[in-house]
Write a structure and sequence with these properties.
alpha/beta, single chain, 386 residues, 4 domains, 18 helices
Length: 386
């Protein structure tokens, strides 16, 4: 089979790639637009780690191509530097530098000078993490503690409110990780991000949806108290199963107001096993801190009426195929995948190990809590109800 010649994409073709990438199209979908393999597109996008490069534009003060054409015609006519400067409304020094850096009076060409100036203007600003190695060291340490870039940025702003030199945006951290040419953070630190992908993906990238079976006598999430919806009071929880290989799973519970997480070891995902574990866990908390539980339509909660009878805790169910209605728990399960990647056997983890993971997750500052930790918020609630 004859190999096709390598394609050199135009700027407009690259712009189309980035537009489709931002909309969430896959590499293969984008490549089909050009009748190419996905690796051809990946080569372009990977240069900046999946982050669209900032569009370039000329300064309104810069000489234009028409200005340079006037200079070129003036030089041929033998006009002086001051005459040219007067005609263009520019300083003589500006015209002199323009001519000298682009071949001199005898070799000056407008189009060549314009392109050369555009090429010379590629001077990216040095990254803040390159300028401050101390700040880069702090960021690297926090990444290794599994803090997200947004948590690190928020924490720095909270700890150093009056020192801009000790603050950095989460976007800068992401860009420094994904664009390795910046040289401030090692590529190995990508492994500590929640989603360990080589390139940054659009938030519109297609996600899989849950498709669980039906269970009877459910109470819809639409009937959940308003106080639970607006997180006004503590005690309303969301739950789900996090699944691993060999039919293993753990139960994940998160409190909506404080984002406090609890993990439960399970020996199976049948409704009796799951319900017994949830009942046992519920009895560890005072009634004021456990008023309701929201779950998806998984068959593991088919025995929800027994749970409610044993605990006096009402269970509410999301609408079919609407996992985002338990958004707090969905987000938490995403965070837990750092500790429990897909495809591993979860039965190997003891309850003590699960408790240690929960403590670490509850000890991370959260943006939605003004960079306090879930543990701090939850313990404040415990103290106030005690």
């Amino acid at each position: 089979m004859k190999q096709r010649p390598r394609i050199y994409y135009t700027d407009s073709q690259k712009a189309l790639m980035w537009e489709r990438w931002r909309k969430g199209d896959s590499l293969q979908q984008i490549a089909q637009l050009f009748d190419r393999n996905h690796s051809s597109v990946q080569r372009i996008l990977a240069e900046t780690g999946g982050i669209p490069p900032a569009p370039r534009c000329r300064s309104r003060l810069a000489l234009t191509l028409s200005n340079r054409e006037e200079i070129s015609r003036g030089l041929v006519a033998g006009h002086s530097i001051r005459t040219l400067a007067s005609q263009l409304g520019r300083a003589p020094s500006t015209i002199s530098r323009e001519i000298n850096r682009n071949g001199g009076r005898s070799c000056y060409r407008a189009s060549q000078a314009d392109q050369a100036t555009w090429d010379r203007a590629r001077r990216p600003k040095r990254c803040k993490l390159v300028e401050s190695r101390t700040l880069a060291h702090i960021v690297a340490n926090k990444l290794q503690l599994l803090w997200s870039p947004e948590q690190i940025a928020g924490w720095l702003k909270r700890i150093y409110p009056d020192h801009a030199s000790h603050q950095v945006s989460h976007e800068t951290i992401y860009r420094t990780l994904f664009i390795q040419t910046r040289g401030a953070l090692k590529k190995e630190l990508l492994a500590y991000l929640r989603r360990t992908r080589a390139m940054r993906r659009s938030r519109h990238h297609t996600q899989k949806t849950d498709n669980h079976g039906r269970i009877v006598d459910t109470v819809s999430i639409s009937e959940r108290p308003a106080a639970a919806d607006d997180r006004a009071i503590p005690g309303h929880w969301e739950g789900d199963l996090l699944c691993g290989s060999k039919n293993s799973q753990i139960a994940t519970l998160v409190e909506r107001q404080s984002r406090y997480v609890m993990l439960l070891k399970l020996s199976g995902k049948d409704t009796e096993t799951v319900t017994n574990a949830l009942i046992k866990n519920a009895h560890k908390l005072p009634q004021e801190l456990y008023k309701s539980l929201t779950w998806d339509r998984g068959k593991e909660m088919a025995d929800h009426k027994r749970f409610t009878l044993a605990t006096d805790i009402q269970v509410y169910f999301c609408d079919p195929h609407h996992p985002w209605q338990r958004g707090t728990n969905e987000n938490t399960n995403g965070l837990l995948r750092q500790y429990f990647p897909k495809g591993i056997d979860l039965s190997a983890y003891s309850q003590a190990k699960l408790n240690a993971v929960a403590r670490e997750l509850n000890g991370r500052p959260r943006k939605t809590l003004n960079y306090e930790t879930p543990a701090q918020r939850f313990h404040q609630t415990v103290a106030s109800t005690g």
